[in-house]
TrEMBL record:
Record-given protein name: UDP-glycosyltransferase 76B1-like
Organism the protein comes from: Punica granatum
InterPro entries: UDP_glucos_trans
Keyword Cell cycle: no
Nucleus as UniProt keyword: no
Length: 449
């Protein structure tokens, strides 16, 4: 692989940037030269990765384009607006005599348009899927679910199971809110087609977690698969953070008792309303458990109005409560004082929690988070699913069940065993390690020829 170059292109959203940058790091340490193409929207600072060669392409977003408002509209726009600038950039890297030979292109599976660009230049493309296999298969099944009349969703049927996607219920395939519901099908069909046409899929998961789903995917998609995770165990995610992590989270945790703190974060995209924000605040205060709560700008649209309320919660909690705009999440979850994680079920957060052996409370908001959460609660049985509306009494009870109850203890036992399996995967001879070796030789011996 000496002197071979890999070009990578992430979706410019935090939960997609982190795993792609981690993958770039992994490939660099395996001897590949790295070029990263990124949009000028949500770009990471190239100086954080001096060993990579960065290229920026324009992404013109209008005032009304809001990522959190309509993720589907955003990803469709990304696929249409980036085609020409990406093609030009890709072509210039390929024709640059100072650059070494390009072995392959690796792009997020969401960026399906890149398959045609790679084909045009006769370069092979690997797709990186940053979420779980179980959620990908649930997305891929949406057209079938529509044929079988599960969609459009009927309020009266939300609790019913979907035998084709067991253990998911109809409410778990809850659609992502978008201006035009047909856009979801347009996006899913294109992503599935782009994934099938790729030369392989790299998964941010490990076999012990999703063995049957991996087999199902391989059978249906017939492309090589590389589950090489947990990616983040190779490098810290916060170095690709778009927001500055508040390091005082760690000094505050240093003052707390071992396993006493519940950490709360809903990732980078999920939004909640003012009422839900109040219920969470009251639930945390009433639980009497120490808490570290990430309230990033944008979590509650119009959040400035909530500052006095937040101050009120913190006054009531006293030394027991801490709120930050963004945390060094991996370090926070690994801290000895952290005893539980209340998450939105984003896949990176879920994996980071599993890798620290931290049982969860999951409050899915949209998209893959619902399916991830169903697996956390019903399959791996390592978290409590908050299925109903956000309500202070229910939150208080869930925190007690997780942090102090027998049920929490049992979940900790199970997640600890998953953590150990994840660690074993990474060691030389482990399944993720072998998959990584297979990926490195596939890129250098098959794709580059
Ligand atoms: C979204 C989806 O929810 C996720 O499932 C999908 O795979 C990618 O897009 P997001 O909602 O941001 O991502 O959540 P998540 O996947 O959990 O990613 C958030 C990342 O930001 C994690 O790596 C987490 O460690 C990091 N983070 C979050 C911080 O570093 N600090 C914080 O305060 C909060």
């Amino acid at each position: 692989m000496k002197g071979l170059r890999v070009i990578l292109f992430p979706v410019p959203l935090q939960g997609h940037i982190n795993p792609l940058i981690q993958l770039a790091d992994i490939l660099y340490y395996w001897g590949f030269l790295i070029s990263i193409v990124q949009t000028d929207f949500n770009s990471i600072n190239p100086s954080t990765y001096p060993h990579s060669d960065f290229h920026s392409i324009p992404l013109s977003l209008s005032e009304t384009d809001s990522v959190t408002g309509d993720v589907i509209a955003f990803v469709l726009k990304l696929n249409s607006c980036c085609t020409i600038p990406f093609r030009e950039c890709f072509s210039s890297i390929l024709s640059d005599p100072s650059k070494s030979r390009v072995a392959c292109l690796i792009t997020d599976a969401v960026l399906y348009f890149t398959q045609a660009v790679a084909d045009e230049f006769n370069i092979r493309r690997l797709a990186l899927r940053t979420s779980s296999i179980c959620s990908f298969l649930a997305f891929a099944a949406l057209p079938l679910l529509r044929e079988k009349c599960y969609i459009p969703l009927q309020e009266s049927q939300l609790e019913e199971p979907i035998p084709e996607l067991a253990p998911c219920k109809i409410k778990d395939i809850h659609m992502i809110k978008t201006g035009n519901p047909d856009d979801i099908f347009r996006f899913i069909t294109s992503m599935v087609r782009g994934t099938k046409a790729s030369s392989g899929v790299i998964w941010n998961t490990f076999e012990d977690l999703e063995r049957t789903k991996l087999a199902e995917f391989s059978q249906e998609f017939q492309v090589p698969v590389f589950p090489i995770v947990p990616f983040h165990k190779y490098c810290p995610a916060f170095s690709s953070s778009l927001l500055e992590p508040d390091e005082s989270s760690l000094s505050w945790l240093d003052k707390q008792a071992t396993n006493s703190v519940i950490c709360v974060s809903f990732g980078s995209l999920a939004v909640i309303n003012e009422k839900e924000f109040r219920e969470i605040g009251w639930g945390l205060v009433n639980s009497k458990q120490p808490f570290l709560w990430v309230v990033h700008p944008g979590l509650v649209p119009g959040a400035q109005r909530l500052d006095p309320l937040l101050e009120g919660f913190l006054q009531m909690a006293g030394e027991r409560g801490r709120v930050v705009k963004w945390a060094p999440q991996q370090a926070v979850l690994a801290h000895r004082a952290t005893g539980g994680f209340w998450t939105h079920g984003g896949w990176n957060s879920t994996l980071e929690s599993i890798c620290e052996g931290l049982a969860m409370i999951c409050q899915p908001v949209f998209g893959d988070q619902r399916v991830n959460t169903r697996y956390v609660s019903d399959v791996w049985r390592v978290g409590i699913h908050l299925e109903n509306r956000i309500e202070r009494g229910e939150i208080e009870r869930a925190i007690r069940r997780l942090m102090a109850g027998e049920e929490g203890e049992e979940m900790r036992g199970r997640i600890w065993s998953l953590k150990e399996k994840g660690e074993a995967c990474l060691r030389p001879g482990g399944v993720s390690y072998k998959s990584l070796e297979r990926l490195a030789s596939y890129i250098s011996e098959v794709l580059s020829n």
